[in-house]
Amino acid sequence: MSRSRALIAAASATLVCAPMLLGAQGYRITGVSLATFVELRPVASDSIADSLATGTGLVRESPVGLVRCPEGQTRCYFYRSLDRSYTVPLVQDVEVTGWGLGQGVSVYAHVRAHVNAGGVSQLWTREDDRFNALAAYVEVDRPRWLARAGRQWLTSQLGMTNFDGVALNVRATPRLGLEAYAGSSLIQGLSERGTGGALAAAEVLPPDVGGALFGGVARWRTTDALSMSVEYQREIRNDRAGVVAERVAFDGAYVVGLTSVTAEAQVDLASTAVNELRLRATRPLLPGLSGSVEAMHVTPFFPLWTIWGVFAPVGFNEARADAVWRSANTNVSLALGGGYRRYQDTHTGVGFLPLRDDGWTVVAGGTWRARPAWDLAASYRRDIGFGASKSDGNAGVRWHPTDGAWVGVTGTVLQNIYEFRVANGYLVGGSLEAAVPLRGDLRLSGIVGLYRQIAANTPATTVNWSQRRALIRLEWAVGADPGMRAPTPLPSATPP
């Protein structure tokens, strides 16, 4: 049986067997079938004798264009383009929810299958990973508490946490919620063991022993205007020989008059680093106009098993301001924002060639509903930072002939400049997008794009070329829809 047929058979078996396996009074199965086509042009390292290059210094001219000639070596190096390649990954997501198994008892599972339908499978990350269980748990919901057991993930101030284990949320009082969770830790975003091949493919020194995770959260709303929470999380090796990570986070929100103030903090107790400090104030300024100011400090977080933390990554301080205006009829909206950041001292570089220690960002955008069935949107972003800069702009128009159906065209221009590479260039292209409801819970959407990549200051063997992309997405559902339910204080363990 071919891989494509195997994928279809697995999806069909899930649809047929899931209701019987659940044995529930109600069930709902939703799925997303995704097919993607992407072209890529790989590059390979090449070299020529330094005698063929002219000039002095690291960057020199040569018959093939600009090349890099390290001091003390007899060769000059460059990258040349290889033949164009493509890949066609197929992804099938299936989510199963069942309820009515008892008072407040429900089950949930989210599985994902991958297969390659053509081209080179190595071009698409995780394309050769045939099957993943992203979530699979039993939930019991009572008036004063809620519990989950199985594979799950939850979101909090510390990001997304994947684990196999249990989570218990207790509604102690109307204003106080307590939560505890514990289990075997998984790779963030992948729901796989850290000691498996998934992490080994990206890390030279992956962890040799799995981790045990436990943590707790307390949420307290003192008044209608003030709320706060604190979270503690610790991960240790399964053999208890060492700590993988230990962190704590605080956040709070306070409303005074028309002004809303939020504060956040994250601290890595294992390395004593302050990973994040953030203070933000938002308020309406004029009719239809609101603004916000924000100050933050950010230092990257690395668990103790990885070698990257040894390099003591520096953080940065940033100040930012944003404003959003909407017309009275909400047909027009404009947004403008920007920020300035300064990096901490890296204690590297030389005196006569100091490294840049600051950067800035400017963002602008707007939307306009020209007619009931026509929407226009445009945006621009400019980033200047250490070692590189980027600017990109997008403009598009979308037509809604009927409810749920639309057709759109988007144009894109993007430029990257790298100070530490002998290259810069830009990309220009466009895409045609459309979506249409077929019937009931069946919806089809797709996008086809063509992008021209143009490089400058590169070797003559680097080819300017056009990339084609296409995507087809089919969303479907089987079973009854229980409707929306009021959220519980427990952070969502169900992927969106």
In angstroms, what separates the terminal alpha carbons?
33 Å
Low-confidence stretches are 1-22, 484-496
Number of helices: 2
The overall strand count is: 26
Overall structural class, as computed from helix and strand content, comes to mainly beta
Give the rounded overall mean pLDDT. 85
Instruction: Summarize the biggest pleated sheet.
Output: 22 strands, antiparallel, barrel
Key terms:
496 residues, mainly beta, 22-stranded antiparallel beta barrel, two-stranded antiparallel ribbon, 2 helices, 26 strands, 5% helix, globular, disordered N terminus, disordered C terminus
Describe what you observe in this structure.
By secondary structure, this protein is mainly beta. It is 5% helix and 62% strand. The chain contains two helices and 26 strands. It has helices spanning 3-22, 197-200; strands at residues 26-40, 43-49, 59-60, 67-68, 75-81, 85-99, 105-119, 131-141, 145-156, 159-173, 176-185, 211-221, 226-237, 243-256, 259-268, 273-286, 289-298, 316-326, 332-343, 358-371, 374-384, 388-402, 405-418, 423-439, 442-456, 465-479. The chain has a 22-stranded antiparallel barrel. Strands 2-5 form a two-stranded antiparallel ribbon. A two-stranded antiparallel sheet has the order 3-4. The longest helix is centred in the N-terminal third of the chain and has 20 residues, at 3-22. It is globular and about 80 Å long. The two termini are 33 Å apart.
